[in-house]
Each structure stands twice: as C-alpha cells, then as structure tokens.
Amino acid sequence: MNLTIGETIKKLRTQKNVTQEKLADSLGVTPQAISRWESGAGYPAIDYLPDLAAFFEISVDELLGVKLSKREARREEIYAQIKRFEEENGFNNDPGAVDLLREAHAEFPGDTKISFALARELCYERYEENPDQAVLREAEKMLRDLMRRADDYDFKFKCAQTLAVLYREAWQDEQGYEEVANMLPGIFFCREIFIADFYSGTHQKKKDVDAAILTLTLQTIWKLRDYVAYELPNEVEMWDTKLRFFEGLIAFCKLAADVIGSAAAADMENNIATLYRYMATYHVAADRTDETLTCLEAMLDHVERVCALPQKESAEHNCAWYFSFYLKQDRYDPIQEDPRFVAIKDKLTALAK
Which domains does the chain have, with CATH numbers? Predict the structure, then answer.
C-alpha cells in the first residue's frame, strides 16, 4: 500500500470541502480513525478502499497514488482555464466557457470549484432575450446541491448569494429571494465586524484587523457611491449635490488610505479613480468641458498609481482596460477630439496593453 495514502485522503477531502466527521459518517468509522489515517498514524483497512474511492469519485488506483499526479495536473489545468476565462472574458454566458465547464464537471463531478463555476456561468442565461428555463433550473439545482454539501461557510454563502440573485433577476421570485438571502448572516455577526470590534481589536493580529477594516470600509464606500448615483433623484437640480457627495467620498477614501496604510493602497486608488469617473459623467452631461477633463485627468492619475503598485500584470491590465472602456461611451462624443481627452485615452490604452 502507498505509505502516503493518508496525505492523499486529506488532500481529496480538502478539495471536496468536507470535514473529517462527514467522511467518517459516510464510511461508518470514527472521526478519530480519519485523523489517524491522514496523520500517517494508521491506514484504512482494505475493505474501506472501494468506499473511499467512491466517496471521492475516483478509482482505487488513483486513491493509492496510481495516476494521481496526472489527474491532479489535469485538475490544475482546468482551474487555470477557469481563471483565464474570468480575467479575460468575464464568462457572461460564453458558449466556449459553458462547453469547457460541462466537460470539466463531467470529468470531476465532485469538484466544488468546477461545479460552482459551471452553475454561475449557467446563471448568465437570465440575460438572454428568451432565456432557457431548463438551463436556469439546472443552475438552481446545482447551487442548492453545493449549499447542501458545503462545509465551508464562506463557500456556502457565496452559493447562496448567487442563488438569491437568480431568484430575483431571472424569475422575480421575491419569496425565493428572501428565503435564500435570509440564510446569510446579519452584518453584526460577520467575521469582519467581530475581528474589528473584539476588545476593540486590541487582542487581534494587526494584519487581521487591517483586513477587516479595509473590507468594511470598501463596503461602505461602494454602498454610499451607488446610493448617491442610483437611488437619489437624478434630476438636473440634484447633480451638484451628487457631485458634492462624491467629493466627500473621495476625501473618505483618502482618509481610509492614510489610516490603514499600504494594505489599502490599490483598493482606495481604484475607488477614487471610479468616483472621479462618476463625477465626469455629470459634468459632461452639464456641458462643463473643463470640469469633465479635470475629473478624467484625476481619474487617470489614480489609475496610474494603481498600475505602479506591486501586483500581477493582469490586474494592471484589467484596471486600465476598465477605465478605457468607459471613455468609449457616447456621452463623451462632444469632447472626443479635445487634445486633453485624446491624451487621457492614449495613456489608458498604453497601460492596458
């Protein structure tokens, strides 16, 4: 028997997002037995091998290490393909992505990461003019199943969020939406509030408190930004008030960046750039060319700061591409030939390459 079978069991169990207790219950053994196997202090009796292989949806040979490295390499290849689709195409009901994920799901039916990627992709069917209800119901079933099997709360809540959106946007099913949304924890019970507030954070690690505060700050900024942009009345007489609110949010971002420090740099710079872009849309609608260009130049400055920070090349590309994309909107047609506007576009295009 392969002496690393315990490591294999632990790796497969982790990938499947199940606890030792759940695996033990499936096999009819104690959680302590699973712990001994995984630590190498003991090995499963040969009678358990078929059940273990069936639980992980692999062959006994693979469980014992035969061909496992090849199979794992294939799994990692699929993960890389999923990541490329997300970064380059954003999925969005891409037929190629659907085919890829269906094949991957058939090959690794128990892999929750692949299953979730497929379910999420199928959810985009809701944006079609005549959505295929069978596809949407398939996504619903997959998400329900993932939630039922998930032992990781973060993953379970991620599935719940996706399912809640499906109920509201695909079927306008408020009862289904509320049922699933109510499965999510209230804000005062979330991890970030606990870490930031537990003894005022004094007994926590600084990096954990910083991360919690950053998450809470970003959520506050996003909610306030979208409330100002989309919930407040959009009549012309409200535009200057909205601009004033956006300026206040920019000041809040800068304050947060000063308080939290380098950990917040990329997120805050990105948010400030977005707020300047929002401001430009109101100025250009009001035929204020100079103010529009000043906001767009400030936006570019903060995009350049994001791209100058240590990070992956794909993140730099995506950030610059995002802001470049919005400059193609019809609202900017009156200033398309302005030298300042051309310079902004050229710099963003160069950063996005």
Answer: 5-63 (1.10.260.40), 71-184 (1.25.40), 191-352 (1.25.40)
> Taking CA 134 as the corner, what is the angle to CA 133 and CA 140, rounded to the nearest 5 degrees?
90
- pLDDT on residue 219: 92
303 Cβ contact list (under 8 Å, min separation 6): 269, 270, 273, 319, 320, 323, 348, 351
**Are the CB atoms for 304 and 351 separated by under 8 Å?**
yes
Least confident range from 151-165, 257-271, 306-320: namely 306-320
Cβ-based burial of 185 (10 A; exposed 0-12, middle 13-18, buried ≥19): exposed
- What gap in Å lies between CA 136 and CA 125, rounded to an integer? 7
CA separation for the pair 88, 84 (Å, rounded): 6
| Residue 131 to residue 83: CA distance in whole angstroms | 26
DSSP string of 113-155? HHHHHHHHHHHGGGGSSS--HHHHHHHHHHHHHHHHH---HHH
CA distance 287 to 217: 33
Please write the tens of the pLDDT for every residue from 273-317.
999 999 999 999 999 999 999 999 999 999 999 888 876 544 555
pLDDT, greater one: 212 or 57: 212
DSSP percent split of the chain into helix, strand, coil, nearest 5? 80, 0, 20
CB atoms within 10 A of CB 270: 21
Give 353's DSSP letter.
Answer: -
Q: Which pLDDT tens digit goes with each residue over 318-342?
A: 788 889 999 999 999 999 999 999 9
Query: Is residue 90 very low, low, confident or very high in pLDDT (cuts 50, 70, 90)?
Result: low
Query: Based on the number of CB atoms within 10 Å of its own CB, is 293 exposed (0-12), middle (13-18) or buried (19 or more)?
Result: buried
pLDDT digits (tens, 9 = 90+) for 29-40: 988 889 888 888
The pair of structure tokens assigned to 72 is 């794992």
Round to whole Å and give the CA distance between 311 and 321. 16
Q: Decide: 85 and 93 in contact? Cβ < 8 Å.
A: no
In this prediction, residue 88 carries a pLDDT of: 65
